[in-house]
Amino acid sequence: VHGDFVGVASRLVEAAHQRGHDVKVIDTLRLTIDLQQGSPDLYYAGAPLENFDAALPRIGASISFYGIAVVRQLEQMGVYCANSANGIQNARDKLRSLQILSRSEHAIGIPQTTFVRDRNDAMAAIERVGGVPVVIKLIEGTQGIGVILAERSETALAIIEALQRVRQNVLIQKFVEESRGRDIRAFVVGDRAE
Questions:
Q1: pLDDT for position 39
Q2: Is the pTM of this model over 0.70?
């Protein structure tokens, strides 16, 4: 098991044992996905992964593609997954997350954001979000990685152009001064935010 996940895993295992559950922590990268018609299978260290009722996927950003494929395989095997493959994928894609949050039925305020592919439209996009300063974000990235504050238009345009040159998709977002560089992270369980 990798890095910071060790502490999280041990706390999850302890909580599960306190509630009478048998738990096994599995390194996602040691799983093998087998595909054949009507019989989705997973193998762990060469042996079939069997008799699991539920999974609590904890997929690191560096293995998103493979981790999401494993969660999809678990779902196809009928294993309940606390975090669905689609949910994990949506959370990793900042553009998709904002598209979901921006729907009127959610009534969730988000900073004005634009996604621009043509660098010739970048200045107009910056103006549409309220002008500089702006926050420039890579579409894929977690925990603040790939987030840049640009205080001048020239700087913003140079950053956007450099990122697009290396085929990175970027979002341009209104800078919310009241945030003072903080963000809020919450766990939503049912209808409660923790």
A1: 85
A2: yes
